Amino acid sequence: MDIRNDVLRQLKNHRPGYSLEQPFYIDKDYFQLDMETIWYRDWLFVGHDCEIPKAGNYFTLQIGDYPVVIVRGKDKLIRAFHNTCRHRGHRVCTQERGASAKLVCPYHQWTYDLDGSLVFARQMDESFDKSKFGMKHVHCETVGGYVFICLANEAPDFAPVREKIEPYMAPHRLWEAKVAHQNTIVEKGNWKLVWENNRECYHCAANHPELCRTYPEAPSATGVQGAADDPIISEHWARCEAANLPSKFDMHPDGQFRVARMPLIEDAESYTMDGKRAVRRALSDDVTISHIGTMLLFHYPTTWNHMLVDHTISFRVLPISAEETAVTTKWLVHKDAVEGVDYDIEQLTHVWNMTNDQDRQIVEENAFGIRSPAYEPGPYSELHEGGVMQFVEWYTKFMVDRLQGDQAKLS
Ligand code: 3BY
Ligand code: FES
Ligand code: FE
C-alpha cells in the first residue's frame, strides 16, 4: 500500500506545537518513508577524518539498507563507496574498521584500489573490462574534521553547510585530534524521539544530575531562540569572538543545522563532576583563552556535538528500525594527549555515559507510552521546548517538500 498520501495529509494537518501522530514513531512503512525521503537523500555525518589518518585506513557503517565504506586514498583524500562488490555483491570490507593497501573482496578476491577502481579480478574472460566495474561512489565531503556522505545520485549542495559550520569548528583543529574513546548504544525508540529528547533541557534537572553540574538547563542554552538578550551569553560571545572563536548563535534558514558557543555553569570548563578539565593537554593551540564553554553544533538528522576547550564529544544517530536507533558517542582529544597521564578514560567519559544512559531510558519509556492506543499528540512547552518544535517543524517541512516534489515530477 502506498502511504505517501496519508503521510502527506497528516503532515500538512500537523498541529503546530504538538508532538506527531503515533505512526510517525512506530510504523514500519512510515519509517521506510523517512529512510527514503531523508536518510537516503541528504547529507549524513558518518565519522571523523582523524579515525582514518593514513592511506588505506577505512571504516564501515550501515545506513538502512546501504552498507558503506569510508576510506583514505593514497592521495590523502577521503572517499566513500557502496560496500557491495561489483562481482556478485559480497560486502568488500566486512570489519568495522581496518587498514589495507587495497580493498580485497573476501569472496573471490576481486581487488579494488583505494580510489574504488577495480585493479584485479582473477581468471575472468579476456573480454572482461575492469574499468566498468569499479566500486560505486557515494558523495563525500569533509569539514572541520567531520566526514559527511550523501547516498543520493544527486546530492544537495554542501556549500551552505561548510560555509556556516567550518569557521566555528576550525579553531578546534579536530582533523588532527584522536578518538580517545567511543561507544554505541541502541535505544529502543524511533530516531525522531532521540532527537526530540535532545532538543530540550526541560527534562534535564530531574534526569541528568551529573550533566547539570556543568551544563545550564536554561532554554537559552539548548533552544533555538538565539539568546542574544541573555547578558551572560552575549558577554561570553563577545569575549570568545575577541579571541577569534566564532560564537554567535547561527542557524541556517531551513533549520537543518545551527552553531552556537554557549557558556557552561559558573567557572566550569568541561563535562566532569567538578567542572575542571578532563584532559590536561588542551585540544587545540588555536584556542588561546580558557572558559570557552561548549560549541554546540547540530545537523539533522545525524549529529549533535559539544566542542570544549579540552575535548570534543560527537554524537551520531543512525536509525536501525522504526523503533530502534543507534547512538554512537566519540570523545576526541589532542593527538598527543596520553591516556593515564593527561586523561583518565573513566573521568573523561563519566558524565556523558551517565547522561546517554539516562536519555536512553527516557526515549525507551517515551516510546513505550506512545505505543498505547490512548496516546495522542501533546503540547510542547513554549518556554522549554522551542528546540523540539523547531525539529518537528524541520522534519514536517522537509518531508512535505520532498514528497510533493516527487509527486510533481511524476505528474
Ligand atoms: O546534548 C545536548 O546538547 C542536549 C542539550 C540539553 C539536553 N541534551 C543534553
Ligand atoms: Fe566479490 Fe566475488 S563477490 S569477488
Ligand atoms: Fe537528556
TrEMBL record:
Keyword terms of this UniProt record: 2Fe-2S, Iron, Iron-sulfur, Metal-binding, NAD, Oxidoreductase
Cofactors demanded by this protein: Fe cation
InterPro entries attached to this UniProt entry: ARHD_Rieske_2Fe_2S (IPR015881), Rieske_2Fe-2S (IPR017941), Rieske_2Fe-2S_sf (IPR036922), Ring_hydroxy_dOase_asu_C_dom (IPR015879), Rng_hydr_dOase-A (IPR001663)
Family annotation (CDD domains): RHO_alpha_C_GbcA-like, Rieske_RO_Alpha_N
Domain Rieske: start-end pairs: 43-149
PANTHER family named among the record's database cross-references: CHOLINE MONOOXYGENASE, CHLOROPLASTIC
Protein name as annotated: Rieske 2Fe-2S family protein
Source species of the chain: Neorhizobium huautlense
